[in-house]
Design brief:
The structure holds two protein chains of two kinds. By secondary structure, chain A is mainly α. Helices cover 72% and strands 0% of the residues of chain A. Chain B is 70% helix and 0% strand. Classes of the chains: A mainly alpha, B mainly alpha.
Chain lengths: 68, 491
């Protein structure tokens, strides 16, 4: 992001030459495809359970309770 | 609100992005972000999501809810609805955009096709520009109320003139540079926290919970249970409105957990809590216009000071929304070669109806909020089904960034008609259960909220259709069978 911060808006919003952008895109895709899943962190069944509890079960229970 | 990082929410909200993530996106555009480039750790993601969550559109959502229900039921509807809406929207977008470093319109391409994703872009722009217009009218109302508190009575025209002035400021902010947005946001967000804290303190000091809880809703319908369900519907629509900003933040996070929990806790919980403060204010003052709350709650001087600040905060929110919309327009080939000033000029021009009919459009704000549910609930359901059930979290980046017809996500002339038909069906399901324009409801609305039905029905149909569709690429062929070069790059 340091590089991102150095790029002014005028240049950032006026896209770079097409060839350079495609080369950069190729490099990024190759790098992302080569990375193992562990490079992006974990999200386990316990995380799903926790999120479902906070965001679905408890709100639905409160909604039903106060809507009686 | 989308509330948006534009969405900026626009976002919340809509759902708008923070200025810092906007800067990153400006620099890297649609390029997939590599893990080392991502800005947000746990604290950064929570702070950014919190900054989105407390933006001024929360005031509007709380005010709309106050029309229908009192404080206790309003708190339940806003918190429950917001959390459920954010969950449905955030799970596929957060985990998918984080894993592949994609912004959200690119993330839609596997499900909707290369050109089909542009249909979603239209919904995205409607969301962003609609919220921007509503907030600008709030800006105009704020100017009018400041003048009235100072003893001047300029008449109704001042609101439209205020909207025009706000649009001019927005154009200047967005075209002059992201650093201006950064500076503006760095001042506005802490001040918003102070303002909301001040409102809570004054509300409970002067009125107390008993009075707040006893305050009647502003304009309820004849059936209390229906008011309760519609208020919940607004809460869900508010949560789903964050669609515009969620991918923007998630692609900038370092781990999967950081991409999900801050969205749920801040956009879902904190955003809901701020909307509750607005709900209390609207009930106590008995007005749905947030700019009319400050003087009665805080007294003339503190009220005017708070109003000035809300007015400034609104311009910042709109600027981030318009900025994110401008970036999103770069998906359309015709806009890639157009100058940034012209792109922003077009977006600002699309907000001009709010200059001429400010109060008429502002009055339809609750219907617009509900319509966000109509737009995004089916999309969220389909993205959920596509990413988790159909593709098992495996996308092909080569196909996302390649328009060539041989690619997996090209489908039929760039459109995945199954998915788009499911969106249409979801919207029809929503409107048949609850029409936000006329407020008519179907008896089934008591059993299944419209947003949830509009999310679940298309998701189920899309999953079944994917099992039989020849055009549907399997996860294996998408990810492994792709040659490592681009035939028709669309960057």
């Amino acid at each position: 992001m340091a590089e991102a911060s150095r790029i002014g808006i005028a240049r950032a919003d006026e896209p770079a030459p097409a060839d350079a952008r495609v080369q950069e895109l190729l490099r990024r895709i190759e790098e992302l495809e080569a990375l193992p899943e562990s490079a992006f962190g974990r999200f386990t069944r316990w995380d799903w359970l926790c999120c479902a509890l906070i965001s679905l079960v408890l709100p639905a229970a409160a909604l039903l309770w106060f809507g009686r | 609100m989308s509330q948006p990082a534009a969405a900026p929410r626009a976002a919340n909200a809509p759902s708008p992005p923070s200025a810092s993530s906007t800067e990153a996106t400006a620099a890297l555009g649609r390029m997939p972000l590599l893990p080392g480039e991502r800005e947000y750790g746990t604290a950064g993601a929570h702070a950014t999501c919190f900054a989105f969550a407390i933006a001024t559109w929360c005031f509007l959502v709380g005010a709309y809810t106050a029309e229908l229900v009192g404080a206790v039921q309003g708190v339940v509807c806003l918190l429950a609805g917001n959390l459920i809406g954010v969950f449905l929207t955030a799970m596929p977008l957060s985990l998918g955009c984080q894993r592949y470093g994609l912004e959200q319109i690119d993330f839609c391409k596997p499900a909707f096709g290369q050109r089909g994703a542009r249909v979603i872009l239209v919904f995205y722009l409607i969301n962003m520009l609609g919220w921007s217009g509503l907030i600008l009218v709030m800006f105009g109302n704020g100017i009018r109320n400041i003048l009235e508190a100072c003893g001047y009575h300029p008449g109704g025209w001042i609101v439209g003139a205020g909207v025009a002035f706000g649009l001019a400021l927005t154009y200047g902010l967005v075209t002059r540079g992201v650093h201006l947005l950064n500076v503006s946001n760095a001042i506005i967000t802490p001040c918003l926290v102070v303002l909301i804290g001040f409102m809570v303190w004054m509300l409970f000091r002067q009125h107390g919970w008993q009075e707040i809880a006893a305050a009647p809703p502003l304009d309820p319908g004849p059936r209390p249970w229906l008011n309760y369900l519609i208020a919940f519907e607004l809460g869900v629509a508010n949560g789903i409105s964050w669609w515009g900003g969620i991918g923007f933040i998630a692609r900038n996070t370092r781990t999967r957990r950081i991409s999900v929990y801050p969205q749920i806790l801040q956009l879902g919980l904190s955003g809901g809590l701020v909307a509750c403060v607005a709900l209390f204010s609207a009930l106590v003052v008995q007005s749905e216009d947030p700019t009319e709350w400050m003087v009665p709650i805080g007294g003339v001087w503190m009220g005017v000071l708070a109003l000035v600040f809300v007015v400034l905060a609104n311009v910042t929110s709109v600027a981030v929304s318009i900025y994110a919309s401008g970036l999103a327009l770069r998906h359309v080939p015709a806009f890639r070669a157009v100058s940034w000033q012209r792109v922003i000029g077009i977006l600002v021009a699309l907000c001009l109806p709010f200059v001429f009919w400010p109060q008429e459009l502002y009055g339809k704000g609750d219907a617009f909020l509900a319509y966000n549910g109509t737009m995004y609930a089916p999309i969220s359901g389909i993205l959920f089904a596509d990413y988790f059930l159909v593709r098992r979290q495996k996308l092909c980046l080569w196909s996302i960034f390649d328009d060539h017809p041989s690619r997996s996500y090209h489908y039929s002339r760039g459109f995945h008609w199954n998915a788009l038909a499911c969106v249409l069906l979801g919207q029809l399901v929503y409107l048949s259960l609850y029409n936000p324009i006329t407020s008519e409801t179907h008896p089934l609305f008591q059993l299944l909220p419209a947003s949830l039905a509009a999310c679940l029905v298309p998701a189920a149909l899309y999953t079944v259709a994917a099992r039989f569709s020849v055009a549907q690429p399997s996860a294996a062929t998408s990810a492994v069978g792709a040659p490592d070069r681009l035939h028709a790059p669309n960057i």
